């Protein structure tokens, strides 16, 4: 890294940030833009709602679990090999998904994209906290966040037009130019070293036991939520108990491995830092609301309001632009203002946007929908650059890679649960109101079902505010913390 810094000067850290930003944009686009294609994909493969939601939740499961491997991969292969490998996998997933002739291949492509996205997403936070001074970290987070949110802001608009013109397959090919650009930038600006500037080493082994338990627990959690919709309570209870048992076993295994001098997948000493522990709670709840709504909003507009895919993208575009502007401004505020206050304001605005959706009816003006979406995106703009900084600034530097992967893992675990939860609750409430998504015409009962899901998301955000307030209560860092393998 020092050689690249000497070559490009003081601006090098910004070049590095932009380089990883392009790849992260591709990974985030692949996670969100597919939602506008779900109705068309479902029709093509004759999928019910339960199978169709796995297009989103299958991606989320793979992304969630693979995040825990980022510190190990950086330590073993270094920044460049890790980053290039994820971009190649993401590129392959997009091409295979777009050319798939059966749903199983589509799902396999989505899992491959999720694995790549999970590994790459903690990397920018590691770079920001290691390469930038504390007084620059908020500005760097704001710039990075502004660039990253442009992908899901512009993506649905372009994706909606592509779906209307060329069908659902075109959505998968949207990541291809971003992946190609990221590969070029990686060989130009991304260093070969591991975090901290040290050379990559092959002396450590991946914690396969922890990875297996994390994967098992995530799958049990999601399938347990799906079985709630199927109306088989004993199967759902068994799966949810399996998720809880996997969590207990995972914690025990991580403690045993750490005490034996090994390299656990998740360094539990992180949670000795109160701000990180409370930030993790916020991240999980916030992920549930964010990704649940990302799945729900396009379905609501197309199925309940009977809007076309391209129109849905146009409605979401102004909110995305506002989010990009907000996140840039709040990033600078995060260098001067308490992060707990910024996170709390953001959660309050996000909760308000969900609650306001309840006033919409079939004859409501479209501009109201745009305004409510903008309010929610302003809230996201307050949360995104503040939560990671507020949670990880107190960490000892050797713990930063583990902290970045762990908090992203918890946020995505909440997101994976949120996508399934919204799908399950939606079908449950539709059945309770005597309607279903297969009904070709909309109805007041269908709107009522969607309203109840939005009310649930508003309540989840309000709950997260209580945890966000606790971010201001700090205590001294633990006297000793295990050094992660990266």
Helix content: over 70%
Please tally the β strands and state the result. 0
Q: Give the ordered list of helices and strands.
A: HHHHHHHHHHHHHHHHHHH
Shape, principal axes of CA atoms: globular
User: Averaging pLDDT over every residue, what do you get?
Assistant: 81
Largest sheet: none
Our Rg estimate from Cα atoms comes to: 21 Å
Please, how many helices?
Answer: 19
Low-confidence stretches: 475-486
Alpha-beta content class: mainly alpha
Terminal-residue CA separation: 16 Å
Strand % is under 5%
Q: How would you characterize this protein structure?
A:
The protein is mostly helical. It has 19 helices and no strands. It has helices at 2-8, 12-32, 38-45, 49-52, 54-66, 70-99, 103-120, 123-131, 134-166, 169-172, 176-189, 208-230, 233-259, 274-304, 309-333, 339-356, 366-392, 400-432, 444-469. The longest helix is centred in the first third of the chain and has 33 residues, at 134-166. It is globular. It starts with a helix and ends in a 17-residue tail after the last helix. The model is unreliable at 475-486 (pLDDT under 50).
Please sum up the structure shown.
This protein is mainly alpha-helical.
Reconstruct the topology from this structure.
Elements: H1 2-8, H2 12-32, H3 38-45, H4 49-52, H5 54-66, H6 70-99, H7 103-120, H8 123-131, H9 134-166, H10 169-172, H11 176-189, H12 208-230, H13 233-259, H14 274-304, H15 309-333, H16 339-356, H17 366-392, H18 400-432, H19 444-469
